[in-house]
Amino acid sequence: MERARIAVSGASGLIGGALARSLTADGHRVVRLVRRAARGADEVCWDPEGRYVDTAGLAGCDAVVNLAGAGVGNRRWTDAYKARIRAGRVLGTAALAEAIASLDDRPRVFVNGSAIGYYGETGDRVVDESAPAGSGFLPELCVEWEAAAAPAREAGVRTAFVRTGLVVSSEGGAWARLFPLFKAGLGGRMGDGRQYWSYVSLHDEVAAIRHLIDTHGLSGPFNVTAPNPLTNREITEAMGRVLHRPTFFTVPAPALRTVLGEMAGDVLGSARVVPTRLLESGFTFAFPDIEGALRAA
Questions:
Q1: Measuring CA to CA, how many Å separate 34 from each of 9, 43, 67, 226?
Q2: 263 Cα distance to chain centroid
Q3: Distant-in-sequence, close-in-space partners of 265: CB < 8 Å, separation ≥ 6
Q4: CB 8 within 8 A of CB 32
Q5: What are the tens digits of pLDDT across the range 9-33?
Q6: How many domains does the chain have?
Q7: pLDDT of 180
Q8: pTM attached to this predicted model
Q9: Closest CA to 278 of 111, 143, 137
Q10: Element spanning 250, H or E
Q11: What pLDDT does 254 receive?
């Protein structure tokens, strides 16, 4: 891809920050969406919950990537926090999609965040992008989240959704909390450990987003997960091998439900998700196995 001007929301987060660094390192101009007055030409003011975007700041962008939203795993799911999670994603996506559609010179692609939470509980069943949405808070959120991008798509802008799995990174997300526990020898499986975790290295997450930006014709949902999801027990054993620590401890399901509340269903639930469309598009994973992803982190 030739040097481009790319707008990124959520550039202060784990994935957005890594994407911005990667693009900048390759000579692209990154324009960050910020929730305050812009301090230069490389910033655009927006208010996702208020559905406001300084549209003029998006003019001339070749691509817009929306990765903004309060962390799903950052705290217990109270009604108030669930409303915040929804507002940041659904209203923010709608604001950006409407801003893009209003431009005379529109970007050629809109890459919008989503999550494998779309599928809900899948048990041992392997699911790809052809599977329907599940039921519950996360699936319903993902359906609304993706639907909010409709104005950009209807305006003729190629729109792709990144249904992200569990990102393996020591810098943030769930794994940033797991690594210290395992390094201290306190790691272990969660519940019975038979639930599938569909993971992806941070490196491959960023590479997949860039692939969707660069590759003409790619639109719709793409699962961004390593090709072979593993059970929590298998991942626990891999953590022990990579970190050279015992993994004797087990966090009982009732304890997780007490501490995490409704969010425990996401930890104990099983999501065996595969990246069919991403692989079919020619994408190659740098870290397709869990030990490689762990070492990269």
A1: 7, 7, 12, 31
A2: 17
A3: 121, 136
A4: yes
A5: 999 999 999 999 999 999 999 999 9
A6: 1
A7: 87
A8: 0.94
A9: 111
A10: strand 249-251
A11: 61
Write the Ramachandran bin of 156: left for phi over 0, alpha for psi from -120 to 50, otherwise beta.
left
The CATH number of whichever domain residue 204 belongs to comes to: 3.40.50.720
Q: What is the mean pLDDT of the chain?
A: 90
pLDDT band at 259 (very low <50, low <70, confident <90, very high): very low
Burial class (CB in 10 A: 0-12, 13-18, 19+), 243: middle
pLDDT tens profile 152-200: 999 999 999 999 999 999 998 778 878 888 898 888 888 888 999 999 9
* Cα distance between residue 122 and residue 126, in whole Å: 7
Evaluate whether 161 touches 89 at the Cβ level (below 8 Å): no
**Residue 38 domain boundaries:** 5-296
Q: What is the C-alpha to C-alpha distance for residues 258 and 13, in angstroms, rounded to an integer? A: 28
Q: Out of 27-31, 141-145, 220-224, 268-272, pick the least confident.
A: 268-272
d(CA 149, CA 112): 8
Q: Which residues contact 235 (CB under 8 A, 6 or more apart)?
A: 197, 199, 290
Per-residue pLDDT at 11 = 95
Helix (H, G, I), strand (E, B) or coil at 118: helix
37 burial via Cβ count (<10 Å: 0-12, 13-18, 19+)? exposed
β-pair type (52-53, 43-47):
antiparallel
DSSP 28-46: -EEEEEESS---STTEEEE
Query: What Cα–Cα distance (Å) separates residue 20 from each residue in 8, 14, 198, 210?
Result: 7, 10, 24, 10
And the tokens for 3? 């040097």
User: What does the block give as tokens for 283?
Assistant: 């994408």
Residues 30, 43 contacting (CB under 8 angstroms): no
Structure confidence at residue 69 (pLDDT): 82
